[in-house]
Amino acid sequence: MGYDIDRFVGYVNEGLLCSICRDVLEDPLQAPCEHAFCTACIHGWLVHHSNCPEDRQMIDVSLLRPLYRYMKNDLNRLQLHCKNREYGCEMVCSLESIDRHERECEYSQIPCSNAGCTVQIERRNLDGHLAVCEYRSRECPNGCGYTILSVEDTQHNCVAELRTELELLRSEMICRVEEAKHEMESRLDSQRRHMVQKESILQNEIEELKSQMSRMMSDVRSLMAAERQHRQELEQAELEKREL
Q: What keywords appear on the UniProt entry (predicted)?
């Protein structure tokens, strides 16, 4: 749907009206036959038809193009009233800037920002409404530190709330202690397994060293026996030499 033509100041060229809704073009597209439409209007039309609603020439979504630049410029220069005119806004601005103005217009109806509140209020009156809104939140005046809604004032009990928070904190602390306990046990088990593994490796290394030592002692004894044998042979040879 386009912009209501009654919002515009002065004459609006016929070529700037949507051929379907007959309002001023909004987000316009143009067919090859040069008839212009609001994007929403022509897309809705082509769901059930395959021709131009103005001259019945065959068209397809893929053939639609943006409005000619000179027509787009003429469209953007049109002057119109803010949509909040009925609420008191007297702003008149160009079509090109109307969306920006209406997003910030002080007369726009916006929802209350408090959860649970369904009131629609003018932006300029929002602060005043928030100050008295029954869904506004505030800190407990009795000093318990809780944030409460005005509608819950009669049900708020500081002692009960603090007791509930204490129980929650106790439960959370117990959970954290259990988590820390499990984590420490897991670390100890891991370290114990690591120590057992290291002990096994060291034991194997000790056994290997013992085996090497035993072989070395055997070799030493063999060398000593060979040396004695050699010495005896030398002595025998010396005796034979003397006899000769």
A: Coiled coil, Ligase, Metal-binding, Zinc, Zinc-finger
